[in-house]
Amino acid sequence: MDEFDHYLDHAALDTLAVRAGQVRTQEGEHSEALFLTSSYVFGSAREAAERFSGEQPGNVYSRYTNPTVRNFEQRIAALEGAEAAVGTSSGMAAILSTCIALLQSGDHIVCSRSVFGTTTVLLSKYLQKFGVSTTFVNPVDYTAWQAAFTSKTKLVFVETPSNPLCDVVDIQRLADITHQHDALLVVDNCFCTPALQRPLEFGADLIVHSATKYIDGQGRCLGGVVAGPKKWVDDVLGFIRSAGPTMSPFNAWVFLKGLETLRLRMEAHSRNALALAQWLDAQPQVEKVFYAGLPSHNGHELATKQQSAYGGVLSFRVKGGREQAWKVIDATRIMSLTANLGDTKTTIVHPATTTHGRLSPEQKAEAGITENLIRVAVGLEDIADLQADLARGLTSL
């Protein structure tokens, strides 16, 4: 840690986003240094042995120790109010690493059925191969959460708000249920980031992020992170050390730059998304809008309580089916047709055939992924231009 870090102990989020974790080299650089090295030179055989054994702190090999990545990890931990954090090669690598590190064959997961499609595939298809079973439940049905636990349940996984229907889960309530069963609650905080929501303050045990999204903010790099108590983060780090789903130092450096403007961007994304959701809600060709910033959303009151704003992602159903949804998407000229989100550029996608395309028809139905559903991750363009971009397709229906 930097010799000045004790001045940040009670610093505000904006200050932490710019300053936390930085250690200057002897060159005195103002921007964070980028350490592009695969390995490190030791002063003696004894020092090498002590570094590898952990007796002496310091860098060993960039698969699991790198100053730039460590800077990023410390900054994320500070922003989330976590004891520790560890970077990974992607958001999915963060989820996989958490599961592999903390579970074993015979264990059971309870997961919201309203999560990113690849998360569902990872848990239901691939972890199942190694004897880890998963029960998926309605995220806002707390009776269903309670009923899903077994004596083998070790992990609970939830996104809030969820992808793509923006379901909002009461983190404190779910944490209480989880802890009654001696399990760990993992919250995917990708949609909010610590700028809008800090799940550990509501009782979550671990947080995962796809840093690829809002933490980067400009769609440049892949990365993920796990944050929480050091004892569990160290377990995740142990897996990463052995298996290698490591964050690139260059990507960590890009993420550090993204964090400096995180709150400003998240507030701007949220303003634009709310304005677009309100506009969509008034369009006759729109069947339903899913955005927690709307008072009509069933999670509005809860989101107002546990988030400082409502985020940049919304979804809506057009009247009709796939043909009508594709027509609206294909008519856009400003929005980017891509499955990524969290970018300064607005993105639009058809979840049923992309992000959730690998789900079975039954899984899609349970998760509310209909053929007429469109997801928009609202960027920082002028809101009137975004409205006009969607109107082009909507008025043709």
List keywords for this structure.
alpha/beta; Aspartate Aminotransferase, domain 2; 39% helix; 12 strands; 397 residues; 15 helices; seven-stranded mixed β-sheet; Aspartate Aminotransferase, domain 1
Molecular structure report:
The protein is an alpha/beta fold and 397 residues long. The protein folds into two domains: 5-259, Type I PLP-dependent aspartate aminotransferase-like (Major domain) (Aspartate Aminotransferase, domain 2), CATH 3.40.640.10; 263-394, Aspartate Aminotransferase, domain 1 (Alpha-Beta Complex), CATH 3.90.1150. The chain is 39% helix and 15% strand. The chain is built from 15 helices and twelve strands. Strands 1-7-6-5-4-2-3 form a seven-stranded mixed beta sheet, with helices on both faces. The protein has a five-stranded mixed beta sheet with strand order 8-9-12-11-10. Helix 13 (322-331) crosses helix 15.
Low-pLDDT stretches are none
Shape: globular
CATH architecture of the largest domain: 3-Layer(aba) Sandwich
* Radius of gyration from the alpha-carbon trace, in angstroms: 21 Å
CATH topology of the largest domain: Aspartate Aminotransferase, domain 2
Structural class: alpha/beta
What's the short story on this structure?
The protein has 397 residues and is α/β, with parallel strands linked by helices. It has helices at 13-19, 45-53, 67-80, 91-102, 117-126, 142-148, 171-180, 193-196, 230-243, 249-259, 262-281, 300-306, 322-331, 361-367, 383-394, and strands spanning 84-88, 108-112, 133-137, 153-159, 184-188, 206-210, 224-228, 286-290, 313-318, 336-337, 347-349, 373-377.
